[in-house]
Amino acid sequence: MEDYKQELLLLISTPLYAILIGLEMVLSAVHHKHLYTVKDTLTNVYLTSLNFSLELLIRVFCLGFLAYFFQFHVLDIQNQYLYWFLLLILQDIAFYFEHRVDHYCRFFWAVHVTHHSSEKFNLTTGFRSSVFQPLYRFVYFIPLAVIGFKPLDIMLMYSATQIYGILIHTQYIKKLGFLEYFMATPSHHRVHHASNTIFLDKNMGMVLIIWDKIFGTFASEDDLKDEQIRFGLTKNIERPNHPVDIVFHEWRNILDDFKMNIPFTTKLKYLFMPPGWSHDGSRKTSKQLRAELKKKREQ
Are 271 and 283 a contacting pair, CB within 8 Å? Predict the structure, then answer.
């Protein structure tokens, strides 16, 4: 039955993606917006293929891992409407914290950075997957299994919310009215992919934006006053479409930092501190960059 649900999601989402991406490509060409390039789009397809293949390879292990914890579950939610509603909410907050760790710990940022590496922002950017994320993502779902949610249902809900998460990677939808208050919208997600200093590490929710508002990582597109949104990284990689560099470039940077003549404990900080951290202040974290920007504006 659960396999049928997964197949149904795939059956619904695949033509939906094809239609909407095709429409966005046409509109981009007609309006001369240049939202797409062949190389960038092929890179997105390449990365999602790697991610999907790895996910298939370890799917049985992930389900077995969560099943181990499910045997200790503390609740048995009989009402199906309540069951699925709570699973949606709790799975979304679990994703928020996973996403936040991906941004605040360089080790995990080295995995996640591929998703932010494009200077384009379109529906195919949603497929620009963090290749190795399936190796650890399921760990964040342990509390859900312990609460009483079945492993297959957890994975199904994640797949369903990913559909929504992909569809908010667009520049064609501006604002969504009252939904802006509690949903992660295209406007909010454009902020997340921006490399403008005030937007770094903001808006990490996939379905709901309320977690960002609660935990202090929210920013509005309207906060950007005198400049345009810039997509990509603060320092874009030299060969953005190279099949190896696109996946491993940050790991190479970490290796270079490990080669420095500094104490081993300091080297570990280059692995686990936020991206941009440096022992000598030669580089800045997003928090430090925002603080510097704020100081300049106050002068």
Answer: no
pLDDT of residue 3: 62
Per residue in 2-20, pLDDT tens?
566 777 888 889 999 999 9
Question: What is d(CA 212, CA 220) in angstroms, rounded to the nearest whole number?
Answer: 11
Contact predicate 109/275, CB 8 Å:
yes
- Looking at the chain, the number of H-run helices and the number of E-run strands are 11, 0
Q: Judge contact between 253 and 244, C-beta under 8 A.
A: no
Report yes or no: 151 and 67 within 8 Å, Cβ to Cβ.
yes
Q: What would the pLDDT profile of 163-214 be if each residue is shown by its tens digit?
A: 999 999 999 999 999 999 999 999 999 999 999 999 999 999 999 999 999 9
| Domain boundary assignment for the chain | 2-223
Q: Which residue has the tokens 């808006």?
A: 203
* pLDDT score for 297: 83
What digits encode the pLDDT tens for the residues 96-152? Answer: 999 999 999 999 999 999 999 999 999 999 999 999 999 999 999 999 999 999 999
* Contact (Cβ atoms closer than 8 angstroms) between residue 89 and residue 144: no
Closest CA to 144 of 95, 210, 78, 103: 95
| Distance set, CA 258 to CA 216, 262, 269, 270, 285 (Å) | 32, 8, 10, 8, 18
Rg (CA), the chain: 20
